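hey can u run this one w/ adenosine-5'-diphosphate bound, need the structure tokens asap thx
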Amino acid sequence: MEQLNIDTVNRLSKVSKTAGGKGLNVSRVLAQLGAPITATGVIGGHYGNYLTEQLDKDDIHHNFSKIAGETRSCIAILHEGQQTEILESGPQVSKEEQANYIANFEKILSDANYVTISGSLPKGIHHDFYSVLTEKATLANARVLLDTSGATLKRSIESDYKPFLIKPNETEIADLIGKEIKSEPTLVEALEDEKFDGIEWIVVTLGADGALVKNKNNYYRVEIPTIDVKKPVGSGDSTIAGLAYALYKNETPEVVIKTGMVTGMLNTQEEKTGYINVDNFEALFEQVKIIKI
Ligand code: ADP
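ok here u go:
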């Protein structure tokens, strides 16, 4: 909109509707990369149906569990170079629906060697839910890439069944260990904390500044080129997709990191969220620098 007017009617001609949310952004980019995936979660009501229709249109294989509540709809208004969001809080998921979802998840696992879990939990779900999914996945020999925050992330890293990869930002790491992070050395020191033991990959993305990555006991500083950015929303999700894809392809740590950086960057160059132009992959890939520190 050219202008957002408060306390009156706003009429708009330019509207686009997408199957959104972090998990679906990851799914879309993985599908674009050519990975054989199944998108899963819970859906309900008309918006739930609309969402699966959109996934069908994009050829994204899916297997969702139905719930009684209505899938939420969120509105992002782009106006005067700003983005105002109106987010519904989403449906309640009952205990029975959670059990149904877990049973469905276990079936999907029989076919999966990597699982990506993104975003916050819906209402009614305990913050240990992702730890339960991680345990099920680990026992089925699937590795989990987890992109969440707050109590849910804390619970997951304290669990006996650790995620294979996490993608916290600096603030989340500071919150987890209760220390301030001011510089690269303090970030590295923070990642040495025993709280992170047993997590093979920790990818701290830093927007235009690239990332700092811990893989086993190795630390890498990742430098990326300056690029023209259209819309950075969803870059972290695209990074998760790139990391998952390269891990699934058994690539070296360097290629895994570079792939994640490039898919993140490619997303910033598009108007659409959680969408990349694969044609530009190679050119950017050459320009990512990895420095072992
Ligand atoms: P999140 O969306 O989770 O906050 P980031 O903003 O750190 O994640 O972005 C993830 C990745 O996307 C970065 O590591 C980088 O590769 C790419 N990226 C994000 N913002 C920019 C930017 N302004 N310029 C170039 N690359 C970017």
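Residues 205-208, 210-211, 224, 227, 229, 232, 235-236, 239, 261, 264-265, 268 surround adenosine-5'-diphosphate (CB under 6 Å). anyway lmk if its weird
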